[in-house]
Amino acid sequence: MSWTRFFRRRYWDEERARELEAYLEAETDENIARGMSPQEARYAAHRKLGNATLIREEIYHMNSLGWLETLWQDLRYGLRMLAKNPGFTAVAVVTLALGIGANTAIFSVVRAVLFRPLPFRDPGRLVLVIDHNLSAGFPQFPSSLANVLDWRAQSRSFEDLAVFATWNFNLAGKGEPERLSGLRVSSNLLPLLGVRPVIGRGFLPREDQPGGGHVVLISYGLWRRRFGSDPSIVGHSVQLDGRSATVIGVLPGGTQMETALDCFASGSSQKLDLMVPLAADLVQPDRGNRFLTTVGRLKQGVTLRAAQVDMDVITSRLEKVYPRHNAGWGATVLPLHEAIVGDVRQPLLVLLGAVGLVLLIACANVTSLLLARAASRRKEVAIRTAVGAGRLRLFRQMITESLVLAGLGGLLGLCLAEGATKLLASLQDLQLPRQAAIAVDYQVLTFTWAVTLVIGFLFGLAPALISSDGSRAGILSEALKEGGRSSSESRQGNRIRGALAVSEIALALSLLIGVGLLLRSYWRLLEVKPGFRPEGVATVEIDLSGARYARDSAQVGFVEELLRKVSALPGVKSAAVSDGLPLEGGGEWLFTVVGQTYAPGKEPIAGYRIVSAGYLATMGIPVLEGHGFTDRDTRESPRVLLLNQTLARRLWPGPGGTTRAVGQEIQLWGRGAPYRVVGVVADVKRRGLDQDAGREMYFLYEQMPQGWINLAVRSAIEPKALASSIRSAVRSVDRELPLTHLRTMQEVVDASVASQRFQLLMLAIFGGLALVLASVGIYGVIAYSVTQRAHEIGIRMALGASPGEMWWMVVRQALKLAGVGVTIGAVATLALGRVLSGLLFGVKPTDPLTFGSAALLLVAIAILAAYFPARRATKIDPIEALRYE
After folding, report:
1. Is 515 within 8 Å of 860 (Cβ atoms)?
2. Domain co-membership, 760 together with 803
3. 150: three-class secondary structure by DSSP
4. C-alpha–C-alpha distance, residues 680 and 33, integer Å
5. Separation CA 180–CA 222 (nearest Å)
6. In the structure, what pLDDT confidence band is assigned to residue 467 with cuts at 50, 70 and 90?
7. Phi/psi zone of residue 546: left (φ > 0), alpha (ψ -120 to 50 degrees), beta?
8. At 158, which helix (H) or strand (E)?
9. What is the pLDDT of residues 327-345, one digit of tens each?
10. Residue 306 belongs to domain spanning
11. 671 vs 730, which has greater pLDDT?
12. Do 320 and 443 fall into the same domain?
């Protein structure tokens, strides 16, 4: 079919046909004048007007294609056009991949931790019932068995209540001794959760009674790792804490179930290895012995609010009946899933919001690229319009191309997300509940492709609307002119590109301010003095809970022998033991001051540490008043203790910040003879650098021995270099004891700020990515503007404008964009300041230094992004710029 027949078909008007014919003839004549043959000249003219295939496909489409064939044609054409512009395609695809990949990875984390339901029977009815005593400063506290039994008998809201307590066990026998994480549980816990062992059976009610027998359920992971998935393991005996226990079953496996059960062990990423009955060691129902976590299942149709009202009535009744133990105590009913998630909800949602901002910036960048590309494709659009393509047809083609581009970005982003998700699931410092379950599954894939389709439509919408509006009067003829420079289309595109650049700057500023606030908060946190000197100290955990150490004298004898051997190691300055480490929490005890009386439930409470005599020197904790424990303090000598400065000042304040604590006596709840205060020591951070030190007491290990100890060793050499020597020393005293968590105190300090460090790292990555994308966006807008204004710049320079004036004209445009974007971003961030307030330490969310620094950084980046286009503007040759005038 000849071109004349194309142009004179009844689908177009005569004027358009003559326009295209005249253009082809003029281009052919000009090519012949340049020395081309007539055939070459006409072919070149056809290519300049538009590829002949384009017109033929358009004609074919209008006459004979169905919607499915049309879609396939649009897809093929879109891929072909992207392949013809590899640079544009690569930049757009990588930009989208970064945004989509980051969103997919963080969404995988958020879904696994926050949104995925627990793999238990009807998990929406599972709750945690937690004690609280707000007046004593305990918003959450374990429960006592006697109280739980009363709750179960009096409540009308629960089908059942079960209890458990975290525990640790030493496993001996074949292979190396091993320390395991486990639970002591009531026999109804697994039925309440709807969990059945994959092999064997669960606990029987009689096994949950004193003398009910020593039985154990092992986890699926321990069964595979330690016992080689032996199906005959049921009925075999294992050695737990020096006692024989019969394996009666294996807990179910699978990542979802295992990670959900792991949350009961520690609430973080620690693995659950086994369960034993709660009453195996004659647990007594003492109301003051609060060590149990309570899980309940609501009755069908009972709401959380109704259950809370029910528990308020019961706890109020118990407070009146048993004021000695229950005065001031209440109970909070929380959904089990919410209790497991804990404090990680806000940081994860902040991260999800941050990657959402990165995706918006990426979309703005790609939209700007498509607008610039749409301006360069005006002739193609003119040809399509000339041969009869309607606005809807052009719009559909442009949207199809943007969806193809988004699809390619989504595929690459999915590959990036897969690697990032695996990395996040393996990070030990992350310490998220159900962390091992983080993965890209079918729901994450659905999310990814939904996001891909939505953003593909959104970032292609503006370019498609502008490009498809090529039928307006005058645009066709202007697009076909070689020297055509400006049009309402390009002006509209420039306005949209400017708005996109402003939005990128505003979004990037919000992220940068967030990064700056977290960075300042993290620095403030690291500046906090923990109260001890972590340098040069190594620690290891040892469990003496076996039958061999059932007597206090056996525990004291082991510790004395161990400290003697460890202190004799080369390079060791001092060694000590304690029941816990700073920054990792610990237990609390009720006490009274001798000579004072207290109303029921108003007794003071304080944290405690049980330490050996050399603990203060080993940890570098200064004594402020009196003295520390000495060699004269033994098991047979009068009971002594140390107080930290906060507790001493609260009980016995003195002049000038001193205290009158030394020589005073306190009585521990249910602990017989009183203890005399012999010294006051500096405050040590007990639960974290961002927490107050709180009230703390130190007791002498010889006078209050217990089975769970941490060995601390201060050395003159690298602490970890002593690992093998410490292990050998422990084995020489008892070769069946497992050693765990061999680490330095500096690692303990670092672990205490691991969550803050992770939040800062993630936001820093996203903020840096946003800054790069915003810089590219500003550069693209300014560079395209310089290209569009080359003629204007040429005229200005021909009329005498200096290169410096042209440089400033271009940079001023970037500064305007940056100024508007910074203003909008600052106002938006001020409004969203409350979101970050819960993540900050020692810094206000409206910190002016952070806001100012972020704004100045973005302005500097804008100037830098405009530098090269501005420099190019100063080198424009006026003759070249005016050539086509």
Report:
1. no
2. yes
3. helix
4. 102
5. 9
6. low
7. beta
8. strand 158-172
9. 889 999 999 999 888 778 8
10. 123-342
11. 730
12. no
